[in-house]
Design a protein that fits this description.
Helices cover 24% and strands 27% of the residues. By secondary structure, the protein is α/β, with parallel strands linked by helices. Bound molecules: NADP nicotinamide-adenine-dinucleotide phosphate and zinc ion (ZN). The site of NADP nicotinamide-adenine-dinucleotide phosphate has 30 residues, from helix 1 and helix 5.
Length: 347
């Protein structure tokens, strides 16, 4: 075990504070990563504030990790000292169940080990990327392609894969009309990726404040959902709607925007249950679905796709001392479009 600097939430209501945590010694299959950048995902805030159920404190959030390998275990074959690597939302899974064997470790029957807020195979609580180092079993460490800088790559490890996976699964591509609801961390990556896949992309944001950005990021159209005319104009339009909103929205209103056979996929994970009128689905044979990050193989595929298409996140790099301020700005939808912690400021 060794001690590293970190930032932790100590309760649902207190600001995060500097602290130290223990990392396990590097085992035969482990990789030690010096973390350079850690993105701030809205899930970090939901968890730090116990919005999804009681969190165990202290909690070090952070599951958008980019860094450099500084040590590898004796049996490690996939990574070497000096490699540029990333870690996303998961750090382990059983590896044997049907879903793990299919490369969908996020649906591990025994429950995957999440990067923070889980208990690892060693019986210790996992702690995330708001820290200087992390030790991860090699199969859950991703390679960051040379074409991507580490700071803009970090958010891809959650925001990138969480939007790439449903866009691929539901066939975003040429001839498909895709709407992205919410232009935040996930939303802005959904726009970039859907555009790169060849789809016709529409942003549905609360206001027109970010219209210029949305179009620059690759959207073909941009509408404000605060304007009731948006819902009249766009009725029956989309093949796929990806909802990234972290709060409750009126699902029936958005489902009415789907074409016949269209699907609305929720990746946004508000604490409160969402309700819908089944007639919103019945008329038009529409589907409402959810999607959870993506498997390790698909995460590597997403990183390679983003490198090939020069898609990094739009980021604001902050020192660790500004994490609490950044949380407030995320909650106020004032993020352009991902905060990324420079972990050198933890030392
Ligand atoms: P974010 O950066 O805060 O973006 C959410 C966006 O939703 C905001 O920028 C805002 O966009 C819009 N929004 C916020 N409050 C709203 C409201 N009351 N009504 C309508 N629109 C609202 O958050 P994020 O990091 O992208 O995460 C989004 C959600 O996805 C969170 O719930 C997070 O936990 C979840 N998530 C899920 C997965 C998964 O695997 N399923 C993975 C990661 C994150 P506009 O200003 O453009 O309207
Ligand atoms: Zn996340």
């Amino acid at each position: 075990m060794f001690t590293v600097n970190a930032y932790a939430a100590t309760s649902a209501t207190e600001p995060l504070v500097p602290t130290t945590i223990e990392r396990r010694s590097v085992g035969p299959h482990d990789v030690l990563i010096e973390i350079r950048y850690a993105g701030i995902c809205h899930s970090d805030i939901h968890t730090a504030r116990s919005e999804w159920g009681e969190t165990t404190y202290p909690l070090v959030p952070g599951h958008e990790i980019a860094g450099i390998v500084t040590e590898v275990g004796s049996r490690v074959t996939r990574h070497a000292v000096g490699d540029r690597v990333g870690v996303g939302c998961m750090v382990d899974s059983c590896g044997e169940c049907v879903n793990c064997r299919n490369g969908e470790e996020q649906f591990c029957v025994k429950g995957s080990t999440m990067t923070y807020g889980s208990v690892g195979k060693d019986g210790q609580p996992t702690q995330g990327g708001y820290s200087t180092h992390v030790v991860v079993t090699e199969d859950f460490v991703l390679k960051i392609p040379d074409g991507l800088d580490l700071d803009v790559a970090a958010p891809l490890l959650c925001a990138g894969i969480t939007t790439y996976s449903p866009l691929r699964h539901w066939g975003a591509g040429p001839g498909k009309k895709v709407a992205v609801v919410g232009l935040g961390g996930l939303g802005h990556m959904a726009v970039k990726i859907a555009h790169a896949m060849g789809a016709e992309v529409t942003v549905l944001s609360q206001s027109l404040k970010k219209q210029e950005d949305g179009l620059r990021l690759g959207a073909d159209h941009y509408h404000a959902t605060s304007d009731p005319a948006t819902f009249e104009k766009l009725a029956g339009t989309f093949d796929l709607i990806v909802n990234t909103v972290s709060a409750k929205i009126d699902l029936d209103a958005y489902l009415s925007l789907l074409a016949v056979g269209g699907a609305m996929v929720n990746v946004g994970a508000p604490a409160d249950p969402l309700s819908l009128n089944v007639f919103s689905l019945i008329f038009g044979r529409r589907s409402f679905a959810g999607s959870l990050i993506g498997g390790i193989r698909e995460t590597q595929e997403m990183l390679d796709f983003c490198a090939e298409h020069h898609l990094g996140a739009e980021i604001e790099v902050i020192p660790a001392q500004k994490i609490n301020e950044a949380y407030e700005r995320v909650l106020a939808s004032d993020v352009r479009y991902r905060f990324v912690i420079d972990t050198a400021t933890l030392s």
